[in-house]
Amino acid sequence: MSLLTWLNEDMKTAMKARDKEKLTVIRMLKSSIQNEQIKLGKELNDEEELTVLSREMKQRKDSLTEFEKANREDLVEKVKAEIAIVEKYMPEQLTQEELTAIITDAIQQTGATSMKEFGKIMGAVMPKVKGKADGSQVNMIAKQLLK
User: Fold this and answer.
1) Which of 15, 32, 68, 113 has the least CB density, counted as fewest CB within 10 Å?
2) Keyword Isomerase: yes or no (predicted)?
């Protein structure tokens, strides 16, 4: 089932349950995907849909960080609830061990030995973990392994 179909089904369920919060998030996700389709002028493939979902998740995580810094507990709870809904549509996240193994493999393949070659590693790893791991987490592990 395509992501758009899945979102439409969940939207109907949320409408019937009168779950306004879930309905709002689903509508935002659907809107983002449709806007991307219009921008590209074609139907999105799975990878492009994943890119849109990842962007939406990153925006919410960034907002969460900012709201926590500003001590806006009312908004923190709202964004946490939105993140939980978006996570439902994301692929299963990689564990720390799986991520470390992928990065170690990339370091061996690229022959990287220092921080100067950090970009090569990130370039090799990010396409493999797209949507399955947070870029900041990949960044942190890669830096630890290169030291």
Assistant:
1) 113
2) no
The residue behind tokens 């907002």 is 63
Residues 69-126: tens digit of each pLDDT: 999 998 999 999 999 999 898 888 888 888 888 888 888 888 877 778 788 888 888 8
Residue 120 CB burial class (10 angstroms; 0-12, 13-18, ≥19): middle
Q: Which CATH architecture has domain 96-146?
A: Orthogonal Bundle (1.10)
Say what the pLDDT of residue 1 is: 63
